[in-house]
Structure prediction request, 303 residues.
Amino acid sequence: MSAKRKSRKGKWIVISILTVAMIGIGATLLMRPTPTAYESVVAEIGDIATYYSFSGNVTTKNRQTVVSSKLMQVAEIKVKEGDAIKRDTVLIKTTTGDQIKSKISGEVANITVEENAQIMAGTKLLEIVNYNNLEVDVKVDEYDITALEKGKEASVKIGAINKEINGKISSMSKEGQIVNGVTYFTATIDLEKDDSLKIGMSAEVKLISNKVTGVVTSPMTAIQFDDNNKPYVLKKGEKGVTVKTEIVTGINDGTTVEVKSGVLKGETILYTKAKTEAPGGMGLRGGGSGGSSNNASSAGGGN
Prediction:
């Protein structure tokens, strides 16, 4: 074999060895775990509140439907629609001299008779509505009844006018109604006076279910769960080592969770967005409000 052919063969051997070495190095690098990219959040002191939520409609507390008690003929109608009247105001006089009076104060509405008309007993004549004394009636599941009590304050959201109005529970029905196998009770919430309120408007009533103040809080996205659905967080330890720390949680409002132990104010929590849900979609223990029609929402937190 000539020296030239030996030299060319040697070069190919060197190139092959280098190629194999580079492939080996590349495979090693690919197999090496990629450092986890963590998000971080600082635990803060704040307040959390959860609420019961019920739907209803605005109605009046005082309404009188005036009907004839016997056969009569209308001689004179003493009021007109829109009149503001007091109790015992004369509304209608009959041809026999009888007087029909109001039993409540309010505004005259829906006059359905005319003067000189012959009226049968039981005929609706007009209505008197007190628009200054409005309320909301809501249906309450029997399992939520313990959360409601007379005198408890409520926040009432009126979507049509984009307002939140203060209210207070004035009464609870003593007998339930069964609808599709579920027992409901009726709660009545008195509303503060507001001239923009109209009877029939839809209302969303919120009542505090649970509240804590001045507690250590963390975003729920920073809480992770082990295979037994126990919550934990990751914190940065010495020399940059990530440390797993079990925690005890309290209530949560769907966004923020109370951390009873395991995390102190000012500590930095590390988390990965892909590992923030509990196995099987289970939520944090001790959080939220119960009941069939309840929603949890935040009362806001401070530092």
The chain has three domains: 39-51+211-281, 53-60+132-209, 64-129.
